[in-house]
Specification:
This protein is α+β, with helices and mostly antiparallel strands and 610 residues long. It folds into two domains: 467 residues, no CATH class; 102 residues, no CATH class. Helices cover 30% and strands 13% of the residues. It contains 19 helices and 21 strands. Strands 9-10-11 form a three-stranded antiparallel β-sheet. A hairpin with a 6-residue loop joins strand 4 and strand 5. 45% of the residues are buried.
């Protein structure tokens, strides 16, 4: 007989230190720099050597994956992970075997271990020859969790830890270029040019023209960035993990999530050779003279061109029209280049666009064959990870995708329904109309934060597409497991961590993919991660789907999880953002009530097992 536990927010948690003092940590207060608080580069003070010597556990590092195991002398370690959970891991690119972290009895002590995959550490194993070195630092327990530091290795520089310590950073600046799309309006500029309109429709990107939000809701974005953990590419909520999936992208934006990888060679770095190649490519594909193009590249100071140059050169005055090919093709490329830089691949400059994107538009018949949706998701994952760093003050990506996903899954009253929206016709993000504040509202952010801290799994819309899927069946691509890519950016896609979003019972997932390199510091210039990418695996994605035995059982209720999932999750996660010691008594009362309710459920389950 299989038994599952229904999860509640606030539930009977392992003993987690609430304050730094409870964790036995001395932390220097941050210095104030320009623009407000500047969080410290190290949030922990120096530990006394004797304290480390007194810790009974021994730190052991797996040379393949760099996981920290805390072994108590004379004890057998078992984290409760089902032994049959792991599928043939040879199918997961760059995914070596990894031992599980323990339920360490040393969790009450602060354990500080510097680990180098491929190197050695105190009590650690040597590395396999040829293995890449990955440096990270593990410190446990953190105030508010995690108790076990094996999963969230960079948490000391995460904004959530700073918030728990009552050191708020300003609301993130959200860079969104959605309003600029209308500055180049195809309908008004080219009312009679069927050829140009046909090229844009054939690209498969035309659905984004009218669905992109003109502004970003700063408080909504920030409230969910706080919960994003880049080690897993998931949001950590009181009851488990959620994330934006490939299926979400397909429904929300109505663009392809399968197809060719979006990657271009030879334009990663600025060299004389790459500069020369870029000038020739722009001249050939946009139909301008080499002299004009060289002048533009010089003005842009890099492998970029200015958006204002694209508009002034190819966006005609109202009423005029491109005359004949190839001019229409050049205009289509210029428009798509401008359009992509305002939507899927928005960057911080706002005024320039990478020439590398133009290479993807060389053959206009191939534009519609790229996996634009998967690429946009990889780009969003990377920028969400960067925005979690405590000293980062802004975020840029296609934030319409993140906002639309939030509105679809969380019943928080953050958006209103659009009466003009029609299923099967419009991208899903068109279903919602944003609610905006004229300025960043800290009170609103606090309200969203507290609501999410108290959120119950039954209050989540786990599967908003259940009534609009073709034949009611989840597309096979939704179960892809591996890595996704944009140019040189590769991000892991951990489907097994979000099984409840597909109607399955959530169980303890496998450890995250192995990193080739990891530097997740407190600022943007100290954030760099590298994963492996097997292009053949992506092109043969049907051979790399999550196996049925790993998906497990279909859930009677969408929010079901295995009995061992929640205790494991609460040990490795920081699932509540607001420190109860800084909050009112209502939050504490709610937490206590939920704890008691869960405890009654557990006693009933124990009685049923006897």
């Amino acid at each position: 007989m299989r038994l599952y536990v229904v999860l509640f927010s606030g539930m009977a948690r392992p003993k987690v230190p609430v304050t730094r003092e409870e964790a036995g940590i001395e932390v220097p207060r941050p210095n104030r720099g320009r623009g407000g608080r500047r969080p410290p580069t190290a949030l922990y003070g120096k530990e006394k050597e004797k304290e480390n010597e007194d810790v009974k556990g021994k730190a052991k590092v797996d040379g393949n994956r760099g996981r920290l195991q805390l072994h108590d002398e004379g004890s057998n370690i078992d984290d409760g992970r089902p032994k049959d959970l792991v599928v043939a891991r040879g199918e997961r690119e760059g995914h070596a075997s990894e031992s599980s972290s323990s339920d360490s009895s040393a969790a009450g002590n602060t354990i500080e271990t510097d680990c180098n995959v491929g190197g050695s550490s105190s009590g650690g194993a040597g590395h396999n020859e040829g293995e890449p070195e990955v440096s990270f630092e593990v410190r446990v327990p953190f105030p508010g969790g995690p108790i076990d530091g094996a999963l969230l290795k960079s948490f000391k520089d995460h904004v959530a830890f700073s918030i728990w310590s009552n050191e708020e950073r300003p609301v993130l600046k959200c860079i969104n270029h959605g309003a600029r799309i209308q500055e180049w309006d195809l309908q008004s500029r080219y009312p009679d040019t069927a050829g140009l309109q046909r090229i844009i429709r054939r690209s498969g990107l035309n659905t984004l023209i009218d669905c992109s939000y003109r502004k970003a809701n700063k408080e909504v974005i920030y409230a969910f960035v706080e919960r994003w953990l880049p080690e897993t590419n998931t949001l950590h909520l009181p009851f488990g993990e959620m994330s934006i999936s490939l299926e979400d992208v397909s429904f929300l934006l109505k663009i392809l999530v399968t197809g060719k990888v979006v990657a271009v060679q030879n334009f990663a770095r600025y060299t004389e050779e790459s500069r020369s190649d870029a000038i020739k490519m722009v001249s050939n594909l946009l139909g301008v003279s080499v002299e004009e193009d060289e002048e533009e590249v010089n003005i842009s100071k890099g492998l970029t061109v200015r958006k204002c140059w694209l508009k002034s050169r190819w966006c005609p005055k109202a009423g005029s029209r491109p005359r004949t090919y190839p001019h229409v093709e050049c205009t289509a490329r210029a428009y798509l280049l401008y359009f992509l830089s305002c939507t899927l691949f928005a960057d911080k400059s706002g005024s320039r666009v990478s020439i590398a994107l133009l290479k993807l538009l060389e053959d206009l018949d191939d534009v519609g064959k790229y996996a634009w949706g998967a690429t946009a998701l990889a780009y969003l994952y990377r920028h969400l990870g960067g925005a979690t760093r405590v000293q980062v003050s802004q975020i840029v990506a296609y934030l319409t995708l993140l906002e639309g996903w939030v509105y679809d899954h969380f019943k928080l009253g953050l958006a209103t329904s659009n009466a003009k929206y029609m299923d099967y016709v419009h991208p899903r993000v068109c279903r919602w109309i944003q609610k905006h504040e004229t300025v960043a509202n800290v009170d609103k952010l606090g309200s969203i934060r507290r609501t999410l801290d108290r959120l119950r799994p039954s209050e989540v819309n786990w599967d908003p597409y259940v009534n609009i899927r073709e034949n009611g069946v989840v597309h096979a691509m939704a179960f892809y497991t591996g890595t996704i890519k944009y140019m040189d950016t590769v991000e892991p896609y951990h489907l097994e961590r979000i099984l409840r979003q597909f109607g399955f019972v959530q169980s303890i997932p496998d450890p995250p993919y192995r990193l080739l390199e990891a530097h997740r510091g407190p600022s943007a210039n100290k954030y760099s991660v590298k994963y492996g990418f097997q292009q053949d695996n992506w092109e043969r994605w049907r051979n790399h789907l999550l196996a049925p035995e790993v998906r497990g059982d279909k859930a009677e209720f969408e929010f079901f999880a295995t009995l061992d999932y929640l205790p494991w999750f609460l040990k490795v996660s920081h699932s509540v953002i607001t420190n109860p010691s800084h909050e009112d008594e209502d939050l504490l009362a709610t937490t206590i009530a939920d704890n008691e309710l869960l405890e009654r459920n557990r006693r009933a389950l124990d009685a049923a097992l006897r």
